[in-house]
Write a structure and sequence with these properties.
single chain, 16% strand, disordered N terminus
Length: 538
C-alpha cells in the first residue's frame, strides 16, 4: 500500500506585498522585527485550536485588543507555533500596550492592528485576497491578462474582458453602480451610454430587471446568464462576482452590434474569479465610510444621539420626509444557510439610490426618503420585499412618513408593530405578507394597548391570574377554550367546532373555570380581563 504524497505548502508572499494590497488603510504595521520581507503563507484565526498549523501564517487574534496587556500572551503563543505575524484589534486613540510590543519584539513576529471601523471578516478577506493576487501574479507572468493576478485594477480588467469576449463591459457593485467599464464606441446602445454617464444603471432599467426577476436570478445564480438580443438592446452576458457565498457585484457584457465570441461565457467565468479580490479591495476602501454610515443609521432608527447629525452623516437633509420599512423572515427560526433576507437587502439597495439599508440579525431595516410618488413609496417597497408573487418567505411592514429625521424612530417602531401583527395573522392562517398601518386596521392599536397593559397584567393578582398561570403550567387547555369562546362571541357551538370538541365538553370547561377559579364570564369586566389575559399569554 502506497501513501499519497503530502501537498506542497503554499508559496510564501512577502509581508510588504500583502500590505501593498491594502490601499484602504484597514491594517497598520506596528513593528516587523524580521523586516517587511518576512514570508506569509496563510491566514489563521487565533482560536482555531492547536491542531491548526500556524507556520508562516498571519494570525488574527480576535480577543484582547492591542491596547490590552493581556494580548501579549496570544502574541507569544502564535510565535511559538511558527506564525510570521499577528493582527490585533486597534482601539481608536489608544496606543498598543508596551507589554504587547515587547512580546512581539522578543518573539520576532510582525505586529499589525486592524482598524476599529473594519471587522475581522474584512481583515480575513483582505489578507486572503492579497495572498491570492500576489501568488497568481507571480505564476502568471506574461501568459495573459486574464490570469487571476493579471489586472491590477478594475479598469484594466474591464479592458481585458472586452478583448476576450468581443463585447463592451461594465463592472458594477451590488447597488448597480458602475465601478469600471471598457471603452465605449460609437455603436454602443443607449442603455450602456446612460449607465456609464450616470454612474449606475438607470432607475427605470432597475425596475424592469426587478419585475422580470432578472435581479433575483443574478443574485442567486452561480453561472453566466444569457440574454438574447431583441428590439430593445443587443445580446448580453451577465455573471455575479462572489467571494464564497457573498455577492460582491456583477460583470455585464453587451454585444454592441456585433456577435460575442463563442468562448465569451468561459472568459466571463474567469473574469468573475479575477474580479473577486479586486472588488474585495474596493469594498474595503469604502469600509470606513460604510461603518460610520451604519452607526449613523442605527442611531437614527433607534433614537440614539442627535437625529439631525445622523441624517447629515448619511448624506440626507434632516428635514427631508422619509419612512421606514421592516422585513423579517416568516419562519421564526430560519433554516441554516437561508439567504432570503440577503436577497431582500439587495433588492432594497437597488430600489432607489437614496435608500439606506441595515441588516440587524434576522431583521432588515430600510430607511426610504420619500421623494417619489405613492407607487414608489414605503408600502410599495414592503410589497416588493415580501415578494408576494414569487416568495412568501418574508414579512414586511411600512411605517408612516416622517416629516424629518426626528420622526424616523416613530416610523420604525410602527413598521415593527405592523410586522408583528402580520406574524400573528400568519400564525392563524392569514396569507397577508406586507402592508402599512392602514392595512392592519385596529389590530395596530390593539398591539399598542397590549404592550401598555402587559406590565399591569404581570404585576396583578386575582381569579383570572390564578386561572391563567395554573392552566398554562399544565398545557393551557382551559385558556385555549376561553379564547375560542370569546372569539366566537359566546357561541358555544361555533367555539366547540373550532376546538374540535363536543359542545358539552366546552360547557364543562367553562363551568370548571367558574367553579374552581371564580371566573364568571357573565361579568363584563371579567370578560374584558380574560380577553386581555388570553391575548397577553399568547
Amino acid at each position: 500500500m502506497t501513501s499519497r504524497a503530502a501537498l506542497p505548502p503554499e508559496p510564501s508572499v512577502a509581508l510588504r506585498e500583502v500590505l501593498a494590497f491594502d490601499d484602504g488603510g484597514s491594517l497598520r504595521l506596528l513593528l516587523a522585527p524580521a523586516g517587511r520581507d518576512v514570508g506569509v503563507r496563510g491566514v489563521a484565526v487565533g482560536d482555531e485550536g492547536p491542531a491548526r498549523s500556524l507556520d508562516g501564517c498571519l494570525v488574527l487574534v480576535t480577543g484582547a485588543a492591542a491596547s490590552s496587556p493581556e494580548a501579549a500572551a496570544p502574541v507569544r503563543e502564535a510565535a511559538r507555533r511558527g506564525a510570521s505575524g499577528v493582527v490585533l484589534r486597534a482601539v481608536e486613540g489608544v496606543a498598543a500596550a508596551p507589554q504587547v510590543l515587547a512580546a512581539a519584539e522578543e518573539a520576532g513576529v510582525a505586529l499589525l492592528t486592524r482598524a476599529e471601523w473594519a471587522d475581522w471578516t474584512d481583515a480575513a478577506a483582505l489578507l486572503r485576497s492579497a495572498l491570492a493576487c500576489a501568488r497568481a501574479g507571480a505564476d502568471d507572468g506574461a501568459t495573459g491578462r486574464m490570469g487571476p493576478g493579471g489586472p491590477e485594477s478594475l479598469s484594466a480588467l474591464a479592458a481585458a474582458v472586452a478583448e476576450y469576449t468581443g463585447g463592451s463591459i461594465t463592472i458594477e457593485d451590488t447597488r448597480l453602480r458602475v465601478l469600471a467599464h471598457s471603452a465605449t464606441g460609437p455603436e454602443a446602445d443607449v442603455l450602456r451610454r446612460s449607465t456609464i454617464l450616470g454612474g449606475r444603471v438607470p432607475e427605470w432599467r432597475v425596475a424592469e430587471l426587478r419585475r422580470s426577476g432578472m435581479l433575483r436570478t443574478l443574485w442567486t445564480s452561480r453561472d453566466v446568464i444569457h440574454r438574447a438580443a431583441d428590439a430593445e438592446g443587443p445580446e448580453r452576458l451577465i455573471i455575479a462576482v462572489r467571494s464564497g457565498p457573498e455577492v460582491l457585484g456583477s460583470i455585464w457584457v453587451a454585444g454592441d452590434g456585433r456577435p460575442l465570441r463563442p468562448d465569451a461565457p468561459d472568459a466571463l467565468r474567469r473574469a468573475a474569479e479575477v474580479a473577486a479580490p479586486l472588488l474585495v479591495r474596493h469594498r474595503l476602501r469604502e469600509s470606513g465610510a460604510a461603518r460610520r454610515s451604519e452607526l449613523a443609521l442605527r442611531g437614527l432608527l433607534y433614537g440614539d444621539g442627535d437625529a439631525r447629525t445622523h441624517a447629515w452623516s448619511l448624506g440626507l437633509s434632516p428635514d427631508a420626509a422619509c419612512a421606514v420599512v421592516v422585513a423579517e423572515p416568516l419562519a421564526a427560526a430560519p433554516a441554516p444557510g437561508d439567504r432570503t433576507l440577503d436577497v431582500a437587502a439587495l433588492q432594497a439597495a437597488t430600489y432607489r439610490p437614496s435608500v439606506r439599508v441595515l441588516r440587524d440579525g434576522d431583521r432588515l431595516l430600510v430607511l426610504l426618503p420619500v421623494d417619489a410618488g405613492p407607487d414608489r413609496g414605503a408600502a410599495a417597497l414592503a410589497r416588493e420585499l415580501a415578494g408576494q408573487a414569487q416568495d412568501a418567505g418574508v414579512l414586511a411592514g411600512a411605517g408612516p412618513v416622517a416629516a424629518g429625521a426626528a420622526g424616523v424612530r416613530e416610523s420604525y417602531e410602527e413598521a415593527l408593530l405592523v410586522v408583528r401583527v402580520l406574524r400573528e395573522r400568519a400564525a392563524s392562517g392569514g396569507s397577508q405578507r406586507s402592508t402599512d398601518a392602514a392595512g392592519v386596521g385596529p389590530s395596530l392599536d390593539v398591539a399598542r394597548i397590549l404592550d401598555a397593559a402587559r406590565p399591569v397584567w404581570e404585576a396583578g393578582r386575582g381569579p383570572v391570574h390564578d386561572l391563567v398561570r395554573a392552566d398554562l403550567a399544565t398545557g393551557g387547555e382551559l385558556v385555549r377554550s376561553l379564547a375560542a369562546y370569546l372569539n366566537a362571541s359566546g357561541d358555544v357551538a361555533r367555539a366547540a367546532e373550532h376546538l374540535v370538541v363536543h359542545p358539552n365538553t366546552l360547557r364543562y370547561r367553562l363551568r370548571r373555570a367558574r367553579e374552581r377559579f371564580g371566573v364568571d364570564l357573565e361579568d363584563p369586566d371579567t370578560r374584558l380581563l380574560v380577553t386581555l389575559a388570553v391575548r397577553l399569554s399568547g
